[in-house]
Amino acid sequence: METVNDLFEDQIKDLYNAETQLLKALPQMARKASSSELRKGFEKHAEQTQKQVDRLLQIAEMWEFKPTGKKCKAMEGLIAEGKEVLSEKGEDSVIDAALIAAAQRVEHYEISAYGTAKALANRLGCSDTVALLDETLKEEGETDKLLTRICEGSILVSAPVEEDARDEQDSDDEE
Could you give the CA distance from residue 161 to residue 20 in angstroms, rounded to a whole number? Predict the structure, then answer.
């Protein structure tokens, strides 16, 4: 890696692989979700992720390189953690909260990665690329906020809590 151009290409390849991995994982997460609102959120994000892959293909074409050939190990790890939730048994609302936690880890990684790629494209002076990356960055932020709204608005409200544990914590806080 000698130039910002080299780093930019590497980052786009990493994002492309990350998004294609995510495209395979999102339908599994949607099937596991018991909340219809969460299921619809995952399905919508899968459609959005396909558009993001298409944008990355467009960027690679603009910059005249193939977006393949790199494995995003970070996404691989995040998806592996998410797959652990897929095999869990338990209270539906708690499983849904765990799915959201896994999905938000992915979103935060993507927000970071797209922010970096956008900064690199900005340094390279390509406003068309910056605009495409910014569109995706905004979508990732919106998805993160949506997941928070779903979790706090309906999932956690119905999730059971051990009363004894909560009472003990409250009494510890009072001391």
Answer: 37
Alpha helices in 124-174 (DSSP H): 127-150, 156-158, 163-174
Residue type, 157: V
| Size (the chain), residues | 175
Sign of CA pseudo-dihedral 124, 128, 129, 130: positive
Distance CA 130, CA 166 (A): 48
Range of the domain at 167: 4-174
Structural domains counted in the chain: 1
pLDDT tens over the chain, length 175 residues: 999 999 999 999 999 999 999 999 999 999 999 999 999 999 999 999 999 999 999 999 999 999 999 999 999 999 999 999 999 999 999 999 999 999 999 999 999 999 999 999 999 999 999 999 999 999 999 999 999 999 999 999 989 998 865 565 655 566 5
Going from the C-alpha of 17 to that of each of 57, 72, 111, 135, 164, the distances in angstroms are: 11, 6, 15, 19, 45
Q: 105: which 2 tokens?
A: 């880890």
Backbone angles phi, psi at 159, to 5 degrees: -75, 135
Whether the model pTM is above 0.85: yes
CATH number at residue 114: 1.20.1260.10
